[in-house]
Specification:
heterodimer; A: about 250 residues; alpha/beta; Rossmann fold; 7-stranded parallel sheet; 3-stranded mixed sheet; about 35% helix; about 20% strand; B: about 850 residues; alpha+beta; Beta-Lactamase; 5 domains; 6-stranded antiparallel sheet; 29 strands; about 50% helix; about 15% strand; disordered N terminus
Chain lengths: ~250, ~850
């Protein structure tokens, strides 16, 4: 199969590209650096010629409302119109669990728009909603740090290893289109504060994690179980502990 | 290798360094000279060939998009494999990075020498190794080119020597690799820059050319020139969204260098494609240009004639780009090209879209100008419309010019305010006489459902033609269906609030507001035409009436009834004198018709076109007659508050009829005389003399000679007036005319009071003839008028005439010395003559003589009066 990965040189994208190539597929890693720019459309139409599957892993360079919405909308339209034209048989897009519950956040609204565009495009699709990556926990910790204290909510949390996200994406890409949304998550669910605490303990022992009940995620108050799958999700096997071990120098 | 072997080991390092420096320098110089990227590899080969024998070198570049590498710089001249059948494939091929051979090259820190025989059959080894091996190549020296740490490509150096490459050579290659890497990346960068430059200058040129575009033809030339630069063989078509907003049609096109079926092209050009035909909507919905594979779209089952045409033309891939003005789609561009260059295509398309917008705006302006011109002409023309055919012509012209249509039918509202009758109609829909012959069938009722809609709306309305409309209202011939017209415009014609009628108009390009304006003008014109037709009709009526009245007037002249000898003499005199300007004096007893004769003279003269002015000299007080005749200036006397034109002046170039001239006061006679002599006059109180050309006809019933003798009439005036006297005979002297006169008056008065012409009995006629008629014709006229009014039956059998008294007859009783018997005899004969020989009974002589009929008989016998005496008249 010929598969085009939009955002194919990013963290997940390069990994998915590698995995699919290993499976013997012709994979085009699309990114502005390889001459495929989904935002401007450059190279897109040519790259999609005779393509069977497109995996959209593009990400907005900005998290601000306006630019993010514009990015996902433009990129979504461009990719989908080129796909329709090229007769692409499967469109896989990576999204975020709970997107529909966090429309107060511009970035989430943008992802929602992206999902809706896919749903209404007419191209067979699989929307893959993932929980936060384990690799994202340091960012959350940094976001909550105030002096020597790390304030973090006790929202349900079920982080997944980026490696496994790539694996799932690759699997979905070569499977039949779900024409719906599938969710992927890590193996363990717990309060967000627990994960942050584990991270802080191993990497920045001088700080104290203070859990709160504010149910806030990046400043947005959300229901407790917003960030975890609603139903049956595909679960990864890599535990958070393994990620923490990979971070320590002796690992 | 031989050269190296000659070198002494100690000095070799030094020399090598020197040489290497020189090589790098030369290479640096070479790079600056490189025009074609392949020159670099040729020059590089030439330089290092002096160091070592090898057959050829190539540079391959890594494509990170799909993790492959492919030939970039080729030495076609020296290539050992250029004759290999797979050479062309090799040049175009992409080789995966994900295999052991190339991975080992990347992993190595420097040049790696491979003995081809060892690796050529290894799993996943790239094909070019085998191809080279088959052409006698034995070793390949592979070196990774890097920018920073990132591998960007490889330099392959091939040799057919079995002993491969020396360590020194590898060292040198390793040392010059960074230089070569930067040269290659410079080439890439240069190529990119050059490409950007080309794009920019292309767009700049295009943009420059576009500024001069004013029309569709200009645009076609510029677009064609530009697209030819992108793809010299390629064709293109620009489609514009039609006014319906649902379809697109070709706007500009070029077939490029392709051969094609002209009939198919013709079909494609004339067709209107729905926007949502599956392909076009993809383009319009996309913000980026899309690449279409013609064959595949056909396979997908899109049955579109343009796809067939492209296949026929040999276009395999087409790029489709939406043309947008702002966010609004105005059309799209199809271009036969294999590659999408987004910046160029977007640049072109935005400019084309702007130019198209401008052209359309321009065309719109021109069209409006033309429309306005047409409307102006129409307005001008329609003011001159006086007849139905003018109206038809003018309205047809404007509708043809604006909407390529004509009025199918124009109806006018009949007086009942309900029926609409066909007034004008298009001949192509109806037979010439069809409508006129079946007016009832083609008439409409204003209360019919569709028609009601028309009159309820203030503007023209568009109706879909369905069967009811067709059957009940339109009633057009089969022509309509043949022309595929399915809608009809209908507009009421109104003048202010008043409904005049309505029109049907068939056409697709009709603009409502314009049509409304036209209909308003048509309404005015129709009402003008109708008014004009009415005026014409009234005018004709008036003319007829006028003719009749003129005839009546002429009959006045012909009222001179009577063919008797006396009258014949008068007629002769009239025709003698009429043509001349001589003064005529009419003499005759009262009631003999002097005025009638004066009119006859006037009407027989050359002055008949002007009115004859009549002055009755007897009817005016002596003090006023002067001002009446000559006029007066303002303030000439007390009460003369304004200027007054006298009868003389009025009669200038005409005839002045002075009736009863004998009654004129003496002092006026003097003035009259002067005017007659000098042919000029002054107004009373006036100073200026007015020249006159007046013909005088004077009339009197007096004996002017006697008046002159009596000193009551100036003799000089008498002689001046008595130039051509015409004496009118008294009625009693022209008894032969009495019958015709009586008949004439009878029919005249009977008609005027609306009776059937009353007739006279023979008895009554005899009575008339016996009467003496002191009042002459006037008396006869009045008698008959009275009798007609009084008559109860269709016949007047008797007149009530005043008894003949001696006093009434003005017969001069001359003193005579005849004996009584003779006088008696003569008197009886005279009376008998008057009575036409009737002796007794009504109108008989006995009645007049006041004796019984028997007495008269015996007297006649006694006096010897025989029939011969009174019939021998």
């Amino acid at each position: 199969m010929k598969i085009v990965i939009i955002g194919g040189t990013g963290l997940i994208g390069s990994n998915v590209t590698k995995k699919l190539r290993q499976l013997g597929h012709t994979v085009i890693a699309g990114s502005p650096s390889t001459g495929i720019n989904a935002l401007t459309g450059e190279g897109l139409s040519n790259a999609l010629e005779n393509t069977d599957v497109v995996v959209d892993l593009s990400n907005s360079p900005s998290f601000e409302d306006g630019p993010a919405i514009q990015f996902f909308e433009t990129v979504g339209r461009n990719i989908l119109s080129a796909e329709l034209n090229a007769g692409v048989k499967h469109h896989v897009v990576l999204s975020i669990v709970g997107t529909h519950l966090m429309e107060g956040m511009g970035y989430m609204r943008a992802k929602k728009i992206q999902e809706d565009l896919v749903k209404s495009s007419g191209v067979p699709y699989t929307i893959v909603r993932s929980t936060q990556f384990q690799e994202f926990v340091p960012t959350i910790a940094a976001g909550g740090t105030q002096g020597s204290e790390v304030h973090v909510s006790k929202l349900d949390f079920q982080p997944i290893a980026a490696e496994e996200v790539a694996l799932f994406i690759a699997r979905f890409a070569i499977s039949e289109p779900a024409n719906g949304t599938v969710e992927i998550a890590g193996p363990v669910r717990g309060p967000m504060s627990k994960f942050v605490e584990a991270y802080v303990k191993t990497n920045d022992a001088g700080k104290t994690v203070i859990a709160n009940d504010s149910n806030e995620y990046f400043g947005l108050a959300v229901p407790t179980s917003t960030l975890v799958p609603e139903g049956n999700a595909y679960l990864g096997e890599t535990r958070f502990q393994e990620y923490l071990q990979s971070l320590s120098p002796q690992a | 290798m031989k050269q190296f072997s000659n070198l002494d080991q100690n000095s070799s390092n030094h020399t090598n360094l020197e040489w290497e420096r020189q090589l790098l320098l030369d290479l640096g110089n070479d790079i600056t000279k490189v025009r074609d990227k392949n020159d670099l590899i040729v020059l590089f080969s030439d330089r290092i060939k002096s160091l070592m024998h090898f057959t050829h070198t190539i540079v391959t570049l890594i494509d990170r998009k799909d993790e492959t590498y492919k030939p970039f710089l080729l030495d076609h001249r020296a290539s050992a494999i250029k004759d290999h059948p797979e050479y062309d494939d090799m040049v175009k091929a992409c080789f995966p990075l994900d295999e052991p051979f190339i991975q080992s090259v990347v992993a190595a820190g420097g040049p790696v020498d491979f003995f081809l025989a060892d690796i050529v059959d290894a799993p996943q080894s790239p094909a070019f190794l085998r191809v080279n091996f088959e052409k006698g190549i034995r070793h390949v020296l592979m070196t990774t080119l890097r920018t920073g740490d990132q591998p960007i490509g490889f330099i392959h150096i091939y040799t057919d020597q079995h002993d491969g490459f020396s360590q020194e050579f590898k060292d040198i290659v390793q040392r010059i690799t960074p230089q070569l890497s930067s040269a290659v990346s410079n080439i890439i960068k240069n190529e990119e820059i050059l490409q950007k430059e080309n794009e920019k200058s292309f767009l700049l040129d295009f943009s420059n050319d576009m500024t001069a575009v004013r029309s569709r033809d200009d645009l076609a030339v510029v677009v064609k020139t530009a697209l030819r630069k992108l793809n010299p063989e390629g064709g293109y078509v620009i489609r514009k969204i039609n006014e319906d907003g649902l379809t697109m049609s070709a706007y500009l096109y070029d077939t490029g260098a392709s051969a094609f079926d002209p009939a198919l092209l013709e079909r494609v050009l004339s067709e209107k494609y729905p926007i949502n035909d599956g392909l076009q909507n993809r383009i319009l919905d996309s913000y980026i240009p899309l690449l279409f594979n013609v064959g595949r779209e056909l396979q997908r089952g899109y049955n579109l004639s343009y796809l067939n045409l492209w296949e026929n033309m040999g276009f395999k891939t087409m790029v489709g780009i939406a043309l947008r003005n702002g966010n609004a789609n105005i059309g799209l561009l199809w271009l036969s090209i294999d590659e999408i260059n987004i910046p160029i295509l977007q640049g072109i398309c935005s400019q084309i879209a702007i130019a198209m917008g401008n052209i359309m705006a321009n065309e719109d302006i021109l069209r409006r100008q033309a429309e306005q011109q047409l409307m102006l002409t129409f307005s001008n023309d329609i003011t001159g419309v006086k007849s139905k055919s003018d109206l038809d012509h003018v309205v047809s012209n404007v509708l043809q010019g604006l909407f390529q249509t004509r009025i199918a039918v124009m109806y006018l509202l009949a007086e009942d305010q309900v029926t609409l009758r066909p007034y004008l109609f298009d001949r192509q829909f109806f037979q010439e006489t069809e409508v006129a012959e079946h007016e009832e069938f083609y008439s409409l009722n204003i209360n019919e459902q569709h028609i009601k809609l028309v009159f309820e709306s203030n503007q023209p309305i568009l109706l879909d033609i369905d069967e009811t409309l067709e059957a009940k209202c339109l009633k057009l011939s089969i022509q309509r269906e043949q022309r595929g017209i399915n809608t009809v415009y209908a507009s009421a014609l109104r003048l202010g609030e008043q409904n005049l009628g309505m029109v049907w108009m068939l056409g697709e390009r009709i603009s409502g507001p314009l049509l409304q304006g036209i209909c308003a003008q048509i309404s005015t014109a129709v009402s003008n035409v109708l008014a004009h037709e009415q005026i014409l009709r009234l005018k004709r009526e008036l003319e007829n009436e006028n003719d009749y009245l003129k005839q009546q007037l002429n009959q006045d002249f012909e009222e001179i009834v009577g063919g008797g000898e006396a009258m014949q003499q008068v007629y002769r005199l009239i025709s003698l004198v009429a043509e001349s300007n001589s003064t005529v004096l009419l003499l005759g007893e009262t009631g003999t018709g002097k005025e009638l004769i004066a009119k006859a003279v006037h009407n027989a003269s050359s002055r008949k076109e002007k009115l004859m002015i009549k002055v009755n000299c007897a009817a005016m007080p002596a003090s006023l007659i002067e001002s009446e005749l000559f006029g007066h200036e303002r303030g000439a006397f007390t009460g003369a508050v304004e200027r007054r034109i006298g009868k003389f002046e009025l009669a200038n170039n005409s005839t002045l009829f002075l009736d009863e001239v004998g009654e004129m006061p003496l002092e006026t006679q003097v003035k009259l005389l002067r005017v007659l002599q000098e042919k000029e006059m002054e107004r009373v109180g006036g100073k200026t003399t007015i020249k006159l050309n007046v013909r005088i006809i004077a009339a009197t019933n007096r004996d002017l000679e006697a008046e002159v003798k009596a000193g009551r009439f100036r003799s000089d005036l008498y002689y001046r007036l008595n130039v051509f006297p015409i004496k009118l005979p008294p009625l009693r002297d022209r008894r032969e005319d009495i019958e015709s006169l009586a008949g004439f008056f009878l029919s005249k008065f009977s008609k005027s009071i609306g009776k059937k012409t009353v007739k006279l009995s023979a008895n009554a006629l005899r009575q008339l003839q016996a009467y003496l008629w002191p009042g002459n014709v006037r008396e006869l006229e009045h008698l008959i008028e009275r009798s007609v009014i009084l008559a109860t039956g269709p016949m007047i059998t008797e007149f009530f005439l005043p008894p003949a008294t001696g006093a009434t007859t003005e017969d001069p009783m001359r003193p005579s010395d005849l004996p009584l018997e003779e006088v008696e005899r003569m008197h009886i004969i005279q009376i008998l003559r008057r009575c036409g020989g009737k002796i007794s009974g009504i109108g008989g002589a006995a009645e007049i003589l006041g004796i019984p009929g028997n007495t008269l008989h015996s007297k006649m016998r006694k006096l010897g009066i025989s029939k011969a005496d009174y019939y021998a008249h």
